[in-house]
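Model: Ready when you are.
Researcher: Fold this.
Model:
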Amino acid sequence: MQARLEDRDGRHAAVHCCEKPGWITSSVASAIEFELRFGGSPRLTIIYERSYEGFGSVVVQLLRREPDGGNAQVLNGQVLLDGLHRDTRNVTLTEVATLNVKMPAMARFPGGFNVRPYTSDLVARLTFRPRGTGSKFKLRYVGSC
């Protein structure tokens, strides 16, 4: 599943064609969600930008929606994607994070979600965590397989 997003601050409407795909946010606790469908070896891929200054992070959580669209159950596990790189290069880079969401959550690997193969009732929620005033996060792509 692929989602292309319009590059607008804090908005998260999916679009089919746009000049600059992506989602940029600088609003505290702003979040975006994606419906997921997994295959036999559940993976979640997130492409985002990392820079040397002015970037915050997002917390990735998986939620199971009730069939009636009501409350959602947050699965164990979460992942922090940091938009700030710590090396000495003054450049902005594209980072690809591929998560094996089939693994269970453990103390040494909090990113495990214990997702069963062929699951299709989950949503990925990415919640922005700023790092000081003026920080932002830029998301390019979210996909599941």
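Researcher: Now this one.
Model:
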Amino acid sequence: MTGEKMASNEQQEVLAGIAESRGYTLEMHGIMAAADPAWVEKYNGFIEATYTGERTLDRKTKELLQVAVEAALRADVDQIQAHVRVALREGATPTEILEALQCVAMPMGGLAFRRGLQAWAAETGFNPEG
């Protein structure tokens, strides 16, 4: 069915399943449910194995990780907001979510500064040993 528009009710069923398991849907889910439902089914299995399925980490912890990682990777705001909503639903406090975001500042800012400093030293010929 790739490239063909899926029947609207089948698409809605796929989207309802995504919303139930993840707690949100994004624009990309609607596009892929319409364009390639077989792929979405396989992708959902991957998501279950790596994200929504409980193993050692509970869903709240996984959502805090999602918020921090997606912020660090500069995901779209609506995608980060979706994970904030699920984190709240799973029992995270606003303060816990904020702290997860604050954890991004040092490694992301620090890494950017380090990379910039290395480029500066290489281009200016700066040698810390004199």
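Researcher: Key takeaway?
Model: The mean pLDDT is 88.
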